């Protein structure tokens, strides 16, 4: 009897162990739990609505941008993109020190109407290459930094230009609602008067950032 009871207890314990789900190692709060599961990661769902924050580096400027995209027909996405790009203005060298001093700040603020086309229709792949283009108005702001904050606000001089870009990039889906995105673009930005040290800010730029899907 004792032997039968021992065998029963062993079988029951084994069945309970097999029925239990494997213990998953918890991730830190800043990383999503579900990553790289083909049954959960779907570009079609991710691209319904998403936002992007990026760091931009280009021809004579560096800055950041935010964008919002919404899924259109087929593999097409459309969105709105605003950049805040700082450019060099007046440069002076201190005696015996090769240290640049900037007494003015100049900003390029493009507002792009953007189209993004996915090149592949693979909903379960973690990589999604794309082509992207945009066009829209561009504001050029020049701010004097010699006074206090309110003097600087009162010294803002602005002009309106226009521009556009074409480029290519790739998105990497590393969680259900998060992706890493990077691309290379060729930008054309036009102003009537020079904004900073450069006569033109046309040229290639590189950007990298994170994307977040929304379920509104």
What layout of secondary structure does this protein have?
Layout: H1 2-19, H2 43-46, E1 49-58, E2 61-71, E3 76-87, E4 92-93, E5 100-101, E6 104-118, E7 127-144, H3 149-154, E8 157-173, E9 178-190, E10 203-213
Antiparallel strand pairs: 1-2, 1-10, 2-3, 3-6, 4-5, 6-7, 7-8, 8-9, 9-10
In short:
The chain is 13% helix and 51% strand. It is mostly beta strands.
Explained architecture:
- With 216 residues, this protein is mainly beta.
- The chain has one domain (40-213): Porin, CATH 2.40.160.20.
- It is built from three helices and ten strands; from the N terminus they run ααβββββββαβββ.
- It has helices at 2-19, 43-46, 149-154; strands at 49-58, 61-71, 76-87, 92-93, 100-101, 104-118, 127-144, 157-173, 178-190, 203-213.
- The strands form two sheets. Strands 1-2-3-6-7-8-9-10 form an eight-stranded antiparallel beta barrel. A two-stranded antiparallel ribbon has the order 4-5.
- The longest helix has 18 residues, at 2-19.
- Residues 14-36 have low confidence and may be disordered.
């Amino acid at each position: 009897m004792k032997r039968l009871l021992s065998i029963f207890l062993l079988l029951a314990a084994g069945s309970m162990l097999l029925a239990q789900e494997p213990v998953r190692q918890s991730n830190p709060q800043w990383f999503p739990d579900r990553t790289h599961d083909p049954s959960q990661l779907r570009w079609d769902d991710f691209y319904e609505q998403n936002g992007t924050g990026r760091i931009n580096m280009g021809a004579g400027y560096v800055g950041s941008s935010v964008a919002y995209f919404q899924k259109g027909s087929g593999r097409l996405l459309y969105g709105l993109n605003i950049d805040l790009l700082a450019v060099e203005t007046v440069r002076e060298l201190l005696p015996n020190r090769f240290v640049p001093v900037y007494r003015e700040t100049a900003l390029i603020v493009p507002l792009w109407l953007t189209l993004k086309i996915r090149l592949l229709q693979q909903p379960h792949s973690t990589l999604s290459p794309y082509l992207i283009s945009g066009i829209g108005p561009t504001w050029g702001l020049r701010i004097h930094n010699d006074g206090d904050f309110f003097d600087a606000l009162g010294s803002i001089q602005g002009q309106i230009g226009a521009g556009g870009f074409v480029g290519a990039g790739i998105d990497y889906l590393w969680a259900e609602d998060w992706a890493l995105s990077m691309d290379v673009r060729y930008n054309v930005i036009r102003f009537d008067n020079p904004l900073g040290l450069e006569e033109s800010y046309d040229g290639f730029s590189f950007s990298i950032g994170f994307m977040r899907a929304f379920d509104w």
